[in-house]
Amino acid sequence: MKRITILINCNDSKGIIASVTNFVSQQSGNIVYIDQYVDREEEMFFMRLECEFSVEVFNVEVFKNMFNEVIANKFEMNWQLHDGDSKPKMAVFVSKYSHCLYDILSRYNAGELDVEIPLIISNHPDLENIAKSFNIPYYCIKVTKDTKVEAENEQLRLLKEYNVDFIVLARYMQILSSKLIAEYPDHIINIHHSFLPAFPGAKPYHSAYKRGVKIIGATSHYVTEDLDEGPIIEQDITRVSHTHTIKDFILKGRDLEKIVLSRAIKLHTQRKVMVHNNKTVVFT
Amino acid sequence: MKRITILINCNDSKGIIASVTNFVSQQSGNIVYIDQYVDREEEMFFMRLECEFSVEVFNVEVFKNMFNEVIANKFEMNWQLHDGDSKPKMAVFVSKYSHCLYDILSRYNAGELDVEIPLIISNHPDLENIAKSFNIPYYCIKVTKDTKVEAENEQLRLLKEYNVDFIVLARYMQILSSKLIAEYPDHIINIHHSFLPAFPGAKPYHSAYKRGVKIIGATSHYVTEDLDEGPIIEQDITRVSHTHTIKDFILKGRDLEKIVLSRAIKLHTQRKVMVHNNKTVVFT
Amino acid sequence: MKRITILINCNDSKGIIASVTNFVSQQSGNIVYIDQYVDREEEMFFMRLECEFSVEVFNVEVFKNMFNEVIANKFEMNWQLHDGDSKPKMAVFVSKYSHCLYDILSRYNAGELDVEIPLIISNHPDLENIAKSFNIPYYCIKVTKDTKVEAENEQLRLLKEYNVDFIVLARYMQILSSKLIAEYPDHIINIHHSFLPAFPGAKPYHSAYKRGVKIIGATSHYVTEDLDEGPIIEQDITRVSHTHTIKDFILKGRDLEKIVLSRAIKLHTQRKVMVHNNKTVVFT
Amino acid sequence: MKRITILINCNDSKGIIASVTNFVSQQSGNIVYIDQYVDREEEMFFMRLECEFSVEVFNVEVFKNMFNEVIANKFEMNWQLHDGDSKPKMAVFVSKYSHCLYDILSRYNAGELDVEIPLIISNHPDLENIAKSFNIPYYCIKVTKDTKVEAENEQLRLLKEYNVDFIVLARYMQILSSKLIAEYPDHIINIHHSFLPAFPGAKPYHSAYKRGVKIIGATSHYVTEDLDEGPIIEQDITRVSHTHTIKDFILKGRDLEKIVLSRAIKLHTQRKVMVHNNKTVVFT
Questions:
Q1: Is some CB atom of chain C closer than 8 A to the CB atom of B165?
Q2: Is the pLDDT of residue D222 over 90?
Q3: Domain range enclosing A110
Q4: Which of A190, A198, C6, D67 has the fewest Cβ atoms within 10 angstroms?
């Protein structure tokens, strides 16, 4: 059996679901999963389908062309088809903190993440040993005010060389340039160590401590030009009290960060996240 | 616009989704919500559809007959059609604890629950004043070992008289007889004050205290003949510590009980719960 | 047995705990609970003690004077002694939403809250019937731009008349004046329907929806002159998804609001909250 | 400054707190943290103190003797004094699952755990490479029905050789013998992959799936002779739905397991856990 995933996004109108499911059926496909959502305010339609076809008769390119002609054009759809056969290539950017990197790599090693990790990029040499112990190439590209443009060009070159599909910022402590962001729209996943929109920017645990909150959080989101304001993929929280110091906040936060980030990575690789209007639709 | 909800359950096979959506489309209906689930172990298919039809042309009875002939028979479906126009009638059974009753009635009053509450039945007179202040008939039917059969017959008589659709046991401290349960299969919602399957039966907070658990819970489930073993609709938990006494467990538990029960009531009235093999499918 | 609660706050120095516990012991008291906290940044010491004395020999006034002379003056303490015999008087302010009021009054009725509620004040007549059904005086004092000063004077008059100890704003939709706030420092408890500091001010559920957060919250805090910036007593959260409308946010939020507010009320009445530097110490 | 931690447990009686704090004060110590708890049912008193002494004058052995004579004997206390200077030695037992081991070792590497890990013991060779990459000796001791006694003797020999203080079973899939358990009472920490007391024993995720629960959990507890019935140190939960397969339960559970286990390890190493009557007192 060949399994494909189709993501659809268009203005809402009558008959979309019937048309799509009917088309799949006519192509001898079987729908094994369907989820759909309509944003009533925006009158936008979103759908995620998983379909199975018998390998002998199914041809992806033919299917794509037919779908475009018969369905997508009619409803003016944005749509993507993902073929379950190939794993997306994920680059990991890190700085000095190891907890998210360890978490990602140990999941990777245990077969939990349906990705390939062709390289790790860092602005510091500190985590090279970890990369080594997992046999993943580690590129240390220093970033200073003066070398930022150059450094980013080198990053881009590597991302192209390794055919990277999407990027994970695993507590990478540099702000990406518009150029890099523009190359990977909705394909750069960041973990921010606060419950956004509370405490954007630098040192959120310090701010949370100062404000005396009783709960701290972490937020994974797609990176956009507006710092910490991209579409939120996943959030989670943990309780704190007056007895916790800033150091305690940081330690407790680490556990949040790695779990929230790994959930976001999984949702992204399973093609369960769609972006519209700076918000996400996250299918179950 | 006329809105209907269709729930479908049958053995899984190819083409069900396409057939159903196509049928709705041919009847000039528009699908506004679709959710589906396949239990791969049991090869069982579950679907929930919300469809809109223009009032002028739509006739429920005609649609039902057509659906039966064209679709349901073909796939040997169990199916139900719910008409959004009529609110289900919910009976509330209580004993002496007021917290769940207050919670239900204050939500009811605020228009949160899409039900009618034609009557409250209790084995004690204690909560009559609350019922009165919400203008709902309150029937006190004492239950003793000797009068149990009689009492239940009286309950059944009232349930029939008021055309009750489903029953909520809001901390009702009596075990229902098989006869009453058989009259309302998957239509009696209980709240049990533990995280089932831990601590079934009487005095779960005492058992939880004795075991030294760090988290307590509450579970809402459909009542079956096996005490506290019916299909679970919703659960939630709260943290406790060694500093909490049994009385604290009980007070903290109350907040859980009322919220978990009200969530279960909402899911049930929105026709989002399907039961199979003593488990629930709960659509979002 | 006579039980008293002592709250202490002063600059940290050596020997405070030993001095206090020794003093209580010398007065033939038994310490049944002690909790203490030192803010290392501010070098501030906080302590909460519950002590028991035999009724025959204990005299509160004598104890207070002794404590002041022997202990409090020495360490330059801010301190309070609470006598378990008298219940604090709590005024509830409401507008049109009933959920928090119902929740408070049903807990009050069930004996869960260790307070007296001598009156309810509202700027709308809507909830009068609820107050009536719980036999609590309800004062409707309209507040408009022009009558604000007058209205608040009337509120203050009532608060004095009823000897109110502290105020709960149970979704009261007016901003209090500095004058009223100054009369009850750290004695006015508000519930804000967001996870502060995210979404302060008006319509937080709308803002949360617009931002596409995956978790919403509620925050109970003491009211200060800075809107929604007072010391946080308690917070809690619940998950939301893209499928939830603003109306869903509001309904889900209600359950948070009432639980977070009631927890804050309980902590306050149990004298477990101390305020310093716009933050709270919340003893367990 | 020299910091020590004192744990006290005895029958409750008047004046314990005052006596202890006074004693510390007389020895020129400063109490920087005090927490206490009385089990009213059992009339048992528990206390945890952190005190600071100036290094020049403080002698641990002298202090211990004095404390014993003046305080401990009088109140018939069980008590322990922990010297902050030495880190406890923790042995990790594993089988084939790597997630808990990775989690422990990456925290260890990041300086999060205040322990030494002198060795890892396993009944399988699978995780040796991980141990190696963290430079920790790995002993593979096969356990079969026939070799169980021998294998455990070898384990005991190693534990003695390395002066191990306590043992962590990081998803170790063998049941320990009474002999080994007796050597480390309340010093063997296990992680069980269910919300105990629900689903003790083997394959709890399978049982949870079958029962159709809406929440799964993990429990860390001290090992006693009764399987999965030892004193609970920490628990946590995560939500599941009908859409999750057993495999999903297992993956989601892993995140719980590692976090719950690491929290238990931290509490244990910070001497915050006291055991009585098969329950724990966990100080904050």
A1: no
A2: yes
A3: 90-282
A4: D67
